């Protein structure tokens, strides 16, 4: 091959490389301009996702954050709260004399990839062998009374955050964040007293008088965040979101990569807990729209905004 032919081949190769590189650069931001160090970041452009995901909504209450009376009026209807807005604010003020005035949250950064595992309580976790995969994540969110002891192979051993309310509360170790999902003023009062002098009140179900938890790691979900999940993510289906779905959307706000385990019915179509033998096979999801929540999780999985491990 003569020199002109070789030069032409080299020129064609360089042109191909340049065109390919320009195409790559048009779809991939430089690392220092990306919001995280993951292979994919949740906040990367997707009109459908950005229509639902509102980064400006504060997931947690803090001493310096005041919800609006409009939000309070929505929230007070969840469990027929009779107290007024002033009582709510006074109760919140007392709570933040006991727990940290602002939550401890790992912020996003171009040089880190924050991974979350959200572990539900579905019976479909049985024999899944997801335990090691769950424990591999940075943040591991469980909810209510979800067990680990005796189920380690399927659900893992670690818990960094546990979302619960008084009627579903359990004692925690010194390294786990207690994330309260408050549905009434009584829940806020319970948290203050259960961490200190002991709670003596009554609710619709028995509640623990005292709870073991590291007070420095306590966090409280924001009623405005709860409303946002209900209105935007669930399109106002159901009376209010389940604790599990609140935890899932919370993970989308706390992490760059989210994996979801233990949601939905088991392989027989029953809504059951993996640590219990189901007695009532007609059990439904109460005031929550279980089907709507499940379809939203499937949609997020299909759009690669999270990874959904079904368990069967």
Automatic annotation (TrEMBL):
Q: How does it sit in the membrane?
A: Single-pass type II membrane protein
Task: Please state the span of the N-terminal signal peptide per the UniProt entry.
Answer: 1-20
Q: Which Gene3D superfamilies match?
A: Glycosyl transferase family 29
Residues annotated as binding substrate: 79, 121, 144, 204, 240, 244, 264, 273, 288
Its primary localisation, in coarse terms, equals Golgi
InterPro entries xref list: Beta-gal_alpha2-3_sialyltrans, Glyco_trans_29, GT29-like_sf, Sialyl_trans
* Pathway involvement of the protein, from the record: Glycolipid biosynthesis; Protein modification; protein glycosylation
Is Lipid metabolism a UniProt keyword of this protein?
yes
Example of a GO biological process term: lipid metabolic process
Recorded family membership: Belongs to the glycosyltransferase 29 family.
Protein name stated in the entry: CMP-N-acetylneuraminate-beta-galactosamide-alpha-2,3-sialyltransferase 1
């Amino acid at each position: 091959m003569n020199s002109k032919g070789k030069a032409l081949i080299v020129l064609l190769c360089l042109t191909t490389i340049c065109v390919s590189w320009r195409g790559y650069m048009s779809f991939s931001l430089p690392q220092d301009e990306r919001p995280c160090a993951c292979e994919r970041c949740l906040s990367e452009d997707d009109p459908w996702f950005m229509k639902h995901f509102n980064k400006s909504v504060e997931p947690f209450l803090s001493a310096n954050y005041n919800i609006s009376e409009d939000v309070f009026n929505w929230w007070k209807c969840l469990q027929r709260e009779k107290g007024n807005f002033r009582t709510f604010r006074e109760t919140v003020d007392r709570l933040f004399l006991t727990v940290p005035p602002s939550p401890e949250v790992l912020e996003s950064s171009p040089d880190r990839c924050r991974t979350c595992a959200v572990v539900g309580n579905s019976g479909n976790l049985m024999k899944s062998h997801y335990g090691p995969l769950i424990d591999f994540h940075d943040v591991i969110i469980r909810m209510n009374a979800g067990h680990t002891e005796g189920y380690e192979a399927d659900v893992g051993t670690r818990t960094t955050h546990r979302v619960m309310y008084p009627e579903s509360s359990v004692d925690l170790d010194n390294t786990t964040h207690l994330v309260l999902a408050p549905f009434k003023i009584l829940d806020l009062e319970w948290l203050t007293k259960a961490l200190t002098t002991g709670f003596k009140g009554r609710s619709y179900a028995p509640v623990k008088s005292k709870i073991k938890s590291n007070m420095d790691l306590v966090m409280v979900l924001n009623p405005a965040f709860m409303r946002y999940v209900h209105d935007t993510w669930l399109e106002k289906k159901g009376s209010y979101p389940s604790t599990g779905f609140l935890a899932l959307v919370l993970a989308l706000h706390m992490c760059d990569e989210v994996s979801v385990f233990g949601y939905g019915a088991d392989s027989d179509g029953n809504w059951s807990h993996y640590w219990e033998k189901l007695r009532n096979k007609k059990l439904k999801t109460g005031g929550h729209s279980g089907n709507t929540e499940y379809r939203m999780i499937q949609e997020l999985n299909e759009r690669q905004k999270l990874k959904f491990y079904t368990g069967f």
